[in-house]
Amino acid sequence: MLLQQFGDNPELIIYWFMVFAFSISVHESAHAYAAYLLGDPTAKEQGRISIDPLKHLDLFGTLMMLISFIGWAKPVPINPSNFKNKKAGTILVSLAGPLSNLILAVLFAVPFAYVTLKYYPLENNPLNPAVIVYNFALYGFVMNISLAVFNFLPLPPLDGSKIFTAVLPSKYYFKIMQYHNVTFIILILLLYTGWLNKIITPVIGGVQSAILSVIVPIIKLIV
Q: Which among 12, 104, 134, 155 is most buried, taking Cβ atoms within 10 Å?
């Protein structure tokens, strides 16, 4: 649980949840907007082109975030029949969510690197503006990379599964979809047992290092 992980600073869960709610809303809104641009107004008509968390948060996905540090939102409804090319449209819409998280990660990396280079070590004062910016930026950076990597996994209901199945011939697609519920249960078990974190943590660390290797030198020129 997050409270156990944060130990003596349980107030940090507020930062974590606020960043999660914002990031997951951008993720789902990106799906909805991409679908709209490609000719499918289904999600737009349901108000999903919005960063209002109440439009997107899923109760179970949020609870899993509190347990495993990774969660999800309500899936954005799309109608591939509205796309000129069903497979290409599905892939592009699926990519929009994780890519939006990678963009957010880069944006959060800028204040994170700046505060770290200019003010670290920070004083132990939760009301210090530098501390507040640092916490939001740190969790925004880590959260969005985690969401991007997590959603690229080829397991339903994640975006990676839609990308993977969309490039398969129809006969294989329908065979895989027969096991949709099974793969979802496997995903939950991997999350709950912590095995999924062990699998994707090295990838998340690699993406973090790659982004910071570009951002930090630039910020050093400013600081």
A: 104
Q: Which residue has the tokens 């969401």?
A: 147
Cα–Cα distances in angstroms (integers) from residue 127 to residues 21, 43, 124, in the given order: 22, 39, 9
Q: What would you measure as the largest C-alpha separation in the chain, in angstroms?
A: 60
Tell me: the pLDDT tens digits for 95-104? Answer: 999 999 999 9
* Tokens encoding 13: 């869960």
The residues near 186 (Cβ < 8 Å, ≥ 6 apart) are 155
Measuring CA to CA, how many Å separate 27 from each of 21, 34, 104? Answer: 10, 11, 10
Distances in whole angstroms, Cα of residue 15 to Cα of each of 10, 150, 209: 10, 20, 22
Threshold 0.70, pTM exceeds: yes
pLDDT(178) > 80: no
Identify the pLDDT of residue 105: 98
* Active centre residues (catalytic): 28
